[in-house]
Amino acid sequence: MPTNKPLRRAAIVGYNRIPFARNNTAYTTANNRDMMTAALNGLIDRYNLQGKELGEVAGGAVIKHSWEINLMRECVLQTSLDPKTPACDIQQACNTGIESAVYIANKIALGQIDCGIAGGVDSTSNVPLEFNEHIRKILLSVRRSKGTFDKIKQLAKIRFSDFAPVAPENLEPGTGLSMGGHTEYTAKYYKISREEQDNYALHSHQKMAAATDRGFFNDMLSPYLGLEQDNNMRRDTSIEKLAKLKPAFDKENGSLTAGNSSPLTDGASCLLIASEEWALQNNLPILAYISHAEMGAIEYVKNKQNLLLAPVYAAPKMLEKAGLTLQDFDFYEIHEAFAAQVLAILKIWESPELSKEFGVEALGKIDPAKLNVNGSSLATGHPFAATGGRVLATMAKLLHEKGSGRGFVSVCAAGGQGMTVILEK
């Protein structure tokens, strides 16, 4: 939108989430609205937002019930925010939370709003169940039928097997493969071994356990339904235990397992984003500025190994616009959908030959000591739309604790998309 006003800097000034729960555990009875409302209420309580009219609340869920057509607005109305606070739903698979943050930040930069909340939520336990296509078409034809005889005639076509419910499937429409199925292609194409994946996963759990023990997450979580911490982390895991797990997707020749893949997870997260002026007026610290963001997309139907590699395109575009190299950062947060996906992206960025296949220049090596220093999705879990908020909050807190610096964030998503973001302190 054209404007004559100078752009303002948008900053993350607050964060909150409920603990993430492995599916079919603590949150089996909670729906998206329940969890998102709980995350919002925790944010409101932590930053004294009761009764305030905010510029906008944006976010969404990847897996939604049909009645959740206005999810974020309904959640706002369940909180103590001023009901004049508007809201909108955004959905971009696993990028939902991070795209929502960029959406709010852009509105602040343009001067349209002074503050807002970006969020995301997903339940893989409380999912919508549908009838199969056969009975669905029959029931629609019954609706259109004029007389009783016609209705009975259509209903007579229903089979007993039609009453078996159909749950949503995590499959790419263009290929019929799950994200894990695609990432098996990635692991094989880039020669990412099972041992490399298991070792990476082990470190994610170890780093998260250490961060938990030093209290890093204490001010980032609101207890919910009896859960005070994420329940996916495995303190007792080991290379030996991970090595015993069977392949989860390619049963015969696969290397991806339940141990080196992020689990199906329930949870919600949110960020409070504001202009410098609003933060000052409300006595809130600038945790980190959102300075750059880039969306990328990639072909993955013919090249099945590409599904989660879109950051390979997003990162160089963003770095060029920012005038930075991949080495100019104090911390890196790369969403761990699968260990193989992270390792493949790092391998491509380091290799001139592999980068050339994508038509981009190699970005070079990342210092592993700066990567996902508190663990990431393999240990924390991955409630699809909620992951962006968790990752950005973690990076903002890391930079705020350091007092200065830059953070590089990368999140991949279904549909062959991905987003990278730069936070600065």
Averaged pLDDT = 94
Distance between the termini: 27 Å
Number of helices: 14
Task: Give the beta-strand count.
Answer: 10
CA radius of gyration is 22 Å
Note poorly predicted spans.
Answer: none
Largest sheet: 10 strands, mixed
Oligomer: single chain
- Note the overall shape: globular
Estimate the helix proportion, in percent.
25-40%
Order of helices and strands: EEHEHEHEHHHHHEHEHEHHHHEE
Q: Percent of residues in beta strands?
A: 15-25%
Query: What structural category arises from helix and sheet content?
Result: alpha/beta
What features would you highlight for this structure?
425 residues, alpha/beta, 10-stranded mixed β-sheet, 16% strand, globular
Secondary structure elements and pairings:
Elements: E1 10-17, E2 21-22, H1 32-46, E3 56-60, H2 71-77, E4 87-89, H3 96-109, E5 115-122, H4 133-144, H5 148-155, H6 179-189, H7 194-213, H8 239-243, E6 265-275, H9 276-281, E7 288-297, H10 311-322, E8 331-334, H11 339-350, H12 352-357, H13 377-380, H14 387-402, E9 406-413, E10 417-424
